[in-house]
Amino acid sequence: MNTQQQKTGSWLSWLASLPSTSRNKFLDSLDEEETAALDEGWIFTARPEQLPPDGDWRTWLCLSGRGWGKTATGANWVNMMALIRPGIRIALIGRSAADVRDVMVSGPSGILAIPGEPPLYEPSKRRLTWANGSTAHCYSAEKPQQLRGPQHHAAWLDELAAWQSWGAYDQMLFGLRLGEKPRCIITTTPRPMVRLRRLADHPSTHVTRGGTMENAENLSADFISAIHDRYGKSTLGRQELMGELLSELPGALFMRRDIDKHRVNTPPDLRRVVVAVDPATTSSDEADESGIVVAGLAEGGHIYILDDISMRGTPDAVCRRALEAYRFHKADAIVFESNQGGETWKVITSQLDRSAAIKLVHASRGKHARAEPVASRMEQGRIHICGFWPELEDQLTNYVPGLTSKSPDRLDAFVWACTELDLLPSFNIRINPDDGHIGNHWI
User: Fold this and answer.
1) Which SS3 state, helix, strand or coil, does residue 423 take?
2) 3-240 falls under which CATH superfamily?
3) Which residues on neighbouring strands pair with residue 333, listed in sequence order?
4) What is the pLDDT of residues 148-178, one digit of tens each?
5) What is the pLDDT of residues 256-268, one digit of tens each?
6) CA–CA dist 110, 334 (Å, integer)
7) DSSP 3-state of 71
8) Is the pTM of the predicted complex or chain greater than 0.70?
9) Collapsing DSSP states into helix, strand and coil, what is residue 419?
10) Backbone angles phi, psi at 440, to 5 degrees
């Protein structure tokens, strides 16, 4: 091993890439002096589960709790791939451009913090370049169109479960096609999401699970004490600390078991159909999506969710898509939330189609207060989802009042559609006498 190899870390990266049996056999052959010279390498500082797994996998999915060492694992895997395969192209994809820059690249556990000769980082070009010609290109999950066209040998996706949508993941897959064995690593704290569970169950995925306490020696005692006091004995702690992929998120208004229990393939005859729109505040690439959900009302007050065509786009594009759904489903009305934009949505839609029936609604109550009655209807079995709408269902089942910071656009449109169609007055709800209520008295 020469000085240049030690400096670049290429030799250690090659060693880390070996199957575990070959790697361990080689390390056992080194004497004490040779081993001491390598003590700073990731292969010696990482825990075994943080090193590349054996086997013919395409996706390495690290589902782990906060502080487990996900970022260091992803960064060192990228660095290893860049050094042992000169000239390759790697995609770095984070929840936002700031997350890629501040966490994945220049964060305390990011790529530039790895000992040895760092790659050249050019923020204006969103690119890192290693001395051997390998490059890593930075992408934001908020701009999936950036990944249309580029091809890569490898990719690192960080905190996938926190992405607003999986559009960037889909585009990444289309471009992960260079070399003999294109691979990607995904590092994320899990959330109960349909697509994440399907990814974990896929035969080409190797899943590594881990909890916060596995990395306790690198975490402050105050941090460990604080998180265990708050989450140690809670179901949420199983997700955030133990890295468990839960079926239900504690505190969520909508339960996946209720959605699945009352799901149908096709709706019955419908009395009314509405298209509900929760418009985004802006139409920039970083803006929220505009939620667009179609729902119908059947006999007996049952509501059926027919379509989720939410999108990110200009007000004109959003109104055109809502009108397309209005015509296709032969809807009675398009319902717009008017808190953002006021009369603008009615004006634009009327200009596109003067015959369309348009209704503006204003949110005078908080999101929780609007959604709670709809969640009760879902639990009662009065709301049915027709088919599968994964992104809508993930927003519903991951919305926890007081904890969910980002506005759930699809959920809002869903709530507006159900509220518009819900004609079941409270006095028609039958009370079971066995619950302790007879006539007008409680017993």
Assistant:
1) coil
2) P-loop containing nucleotide triphosphate hydrolases (3.40.50.300)
3) 274
4) 999 999 999 999 988 988 899 999 999 999 9
5) 888 889 999 999 9
6) 47
7) helix
8) no
9) helix
10) -105, 20
